[in-house]
Every structure is written in structure tokens, then in C-alpha cells.
Prior knowledge:
It contains four helices and eleven strands. By secondary structure, the chain is α+β, with helices and mostly antiparallel strands.
Amino acid sequence: MRTPGPAVAVALLCALLACAGPLRRTPDGRFHHDRHHYTIAAPPTVSGVTWKRVDVDGADLAFRGSDTSLLTVMSECRPVGEARASLLARQLLIGIDERQRVESHPVALHGDPGWMQVFRTLDGRREVEVRSVTIRGGRCVFDMLWVGPPGAPGADAFDGWWSSFQRDRSAERGGTAS
Length: 178
């Protein structure tokens, strides 16, 4: 039996988490998730790679790059106890048996703890690289991923894209996150 590739694993993860939610474009061009109270910019054009919004089952938002790479953001709000961002990030690896870790380290975004990991795996017979950032904020977990061929220029857009993510802390204080 063949191990599912990262694109399949992302789709399965999203389906299990039922993480799709209401998302709208704001006048300043950002994307706002009404229920999970966050915004994120459209991916920047970097190294000549342009991005087109696409549907990926279960992802809140997804973009396909002109270099064939994929960017997604997923969110889930539920009690997570004291689970560290590194543990929550490792859940993305479930079902991807054959992988080679490239890097893995803590990150922070606007005071929220996070974890970045980069690994390579096979999607069918094609080697792909997966970059993920998991942010734990309030009762929510946010996963931003880039998947593409190793060395693809779209990877250069990932850092700028995930770092544009912002939670609306005022909505959280009102207790409206679900």
C-alpha cells in the first residue's frame, strides 16, 4: 500500500477537521474569516510566481502558484488544553510515513506561539517539499502550508504570506470565536 502524498494528506486532514468556514475579501484586499476572526493577505508575487485562488476541500483559503505550488490556510477552534504548538504541528504529519525533515523550529507571530517545519516526501513518484507554520492563538489552531517541488520559486512567497496572518483579539475577548 502506498503512503498518501502531502496533497492527499492535507485534504484528508481538512475533511476530518471540517475546517471550512466563512471567508470574505475586505476592502484592503485581505481575506477575513468571520467565525475564527483572522485576516491574511493574498500571497505576494515573488520570483515571478503569481497566485490564483482555488478551492481545496476543507481549506479556509487556498492558492495555486504559476509554478504549480500550493498555499493553504486551515483553522480550527476548540479547546486544546495546554498542547504546545510543536505538538499541534506534528499532527500534520500523521499519515505521511516516508518523509525527510529539513528543518523544524519555534516561531512566534504577534505574540502567539507557533512552530515551523519543512520536510520532503513523495506525492506519487514526485518529490515535494512541504513547509508549514502552525500558530496557536486563543482557542484556535491555524495551519498555513506551502507544497511544491523542492526549489520551486513559490516557496519564496511563503514567509511573507504566513507572516501577514493576524488574529482579531477583540473578537476573542467578546467570546464569539467558535
